[in-house]
Amino acid sequence: MEIDPSSEVKYRVKLSNKYLKRAKKFLTTGDWKESAEASPLSAENAAKAIIAIKRIPSWDTRLLP
After folding, report:
1. I need a surface site. Which of 1, 20, 33, 45 has the fewest CB within 10 A?
2. How many domains does the chain contain in total?
């Protein structure tokens, strides 16, 4: 059975970009706390997108056979 992770990858990339834009916005306004909270979420979702390309994500049971 072939698993197509493209929807998971697209979702994670979209989330990563959303959090990155949010972190940049807060950084420019001087809201360091909010920027520091959004930055790791961007990195986490980017990493999850990369993982999903190569293997079935353990956090997404919808993709399991």
Report:
1. 1
2. 1
